[in-house]
Amino acid sequence: MSDDLLSLSAAQAAAAIEQGDVNAQELFAFYRERAQADASANGDGLNCFTWVAEDASTTPLASGPGWSDAPGTPGTGPLAGVPLAVKDLFCTKGVPSQSGSRILEDYRPPYTASAVRALTGTGATLLAKTNQDEFAMGSSTENSAYGPTLNPWDRSRVPGGSSGGSAAAVAAGLAPWAIGTDTGGSIRQPAALCGIVGLKPTYGAVSRFGMIAFASSLDQAGPLTRDVTDAALMLGHMVGRDRCDATSLDYPHEIELPRAERLDGLRLGVPAELRAPDPGAAGGEAGAQIEPGVRESFERALKLAEELGASVEEIRLPHAPHALSAYYVLAPSEASSNLARFDGVRYGMRAPDAEDLLDMYTRTRHDGFGKEVKRRIMLGTYALSSGYYDAYYGRAQRVRTKIAEDFKAAFEQVDLIVTPTSANVAFGLGEKTANPWSMYLSDYFTVPMSLAGIPAISIPCGLSEGLPVGLQIAGPAFSENKLLDTSFALEQALGFEEGAARV
Amino acid sequence: MARLARLALSEDELEPMAQELSAVLDHIAKIGELDLVDVPPTSHVVELTGALRPDEPRPSLPREVALEQAPAVDQDGFLVPSPQA
Fold this sequence. Notes:
The complex is a heterodimer. Chain A is of the alpha/beta class. Chain A has helices at 2-7, 10-18, 24-39, 114-120, 164-171, 188-194, 228-238, 272-275, 292-307, 323-338, 357-368, 371-384, 390-413, 436-440, 447-452, 480-494, and strands at 49-52, 83-87, 125-130, 177-182, 197-200, 220-225, 267-271, 311-315, 416-420, 456-464, 467-474. Chain A is globular and about 70 Å long. By secondary structure, chain B is mainly alpha-helical. In chain B, strand 1 and strand 2 form a beta hairpin.
């Protein structure tokens, strides 16, 4: 029975519960035990979680407005009884929500994030909070104040980041599915490195209310799941306008469960700039070197897409090589502003024995923030400071315009754009921590889409050196159904062995 | 810059931080090579219209809930250190 439960995808589990074949309490207990075993393994586990539920009763229910968690009926709705793992940075009422930071240690918010309530309001139960890079700043989950998460495929390697705990938990079968956030690649890259599916929706499709903010013009919540169908199922319940987030939008149509088998007539574009074998050849910042095994898996996926009826052509995104530089101005700038709220006054930790207010601020922030967070706050403060604003922030915003225009032009030529999600497979723990820019390059292929606000998905497309490789597919705003359908058809054709890294 | 960011950094933290930031700034400076005259800035990708809602009063977080997570509270407010206190 246990093996049967483990083999069920979230969509299958929801259907089995509805038909009475699986008991929701039993399913919750099964995953709770697995998650708790990892959480209490003291260094022998993957360290996926920062908190695990005692039982299903901590689940926030309906999706009422504002800070109030309106009461609802537990265990009803289409997701009834499917346990959900939630990235630490989502506020969950009464449950530690620390964003991977010491400065928010044991912070228990008075309300629950809208994206989480959208899922628990339709019956999903809160299973656990997942580990992440502090304030979502990182690509390896090594920047967590609660220790690094390990990759279930190879424990000497990172799971990617910043949603590394969510990705590792799903890949290891410690949670049926998880919700994460993506600012520059934080859903897609860990999904790729852990061999699962991760989708960053169109900016504005999902409410950001209750997400502890990193870079507000880029942050988006989305699913990390075993397969494409689960991603569609979860996304369908997440999208929609929320009056608590003025940048959230009415999603223009239903998110449908994918069913495409063929890709006839679909035009796929491969950006020359991101495929360039010679880093820097396309101008701008030297790109990430694509590993041979990653390139092989990527080319194989393109060939399969052609066999399914799609055409593949080269496109140009002339400003894409500048995306990472622009991103590392914009995101730290927004972060330096967003993180000003952590001052030791209203919540979180406070450094003791301060002489005055300024002393309390600076020492609290010194003790509470980790190294990478301090680095980005400093970078953002510099980029926004008087005299440098035009040279950095102003210029980066203009680069952002050019990147969005590049995508717009490309989507007149092709339907979707494909790249490897990451230039490399999962790298070793500690391998990139000494050199910030080498870590930042992890997001080379994912950042352009973030700046343009367009949706992108990562699906596993093969193995290189025994480790998963991710294929990224991006489309115009609100093209999630097409992304999911295309991913679904490719997923069937690729035959990636889902669940190979379960513990 | 650390003072502006309200961060206390010790002497032995400052030097490596300065070096790391300089290295990152060298990469970022590449955007200076682009010709961006007449290009409008994008602060946000979503075209927002009608983001205003009716100004209707509704309950806010109760005071005791708002104070519950504070490191120090006095009477009905947040308590902060003050040399005059």
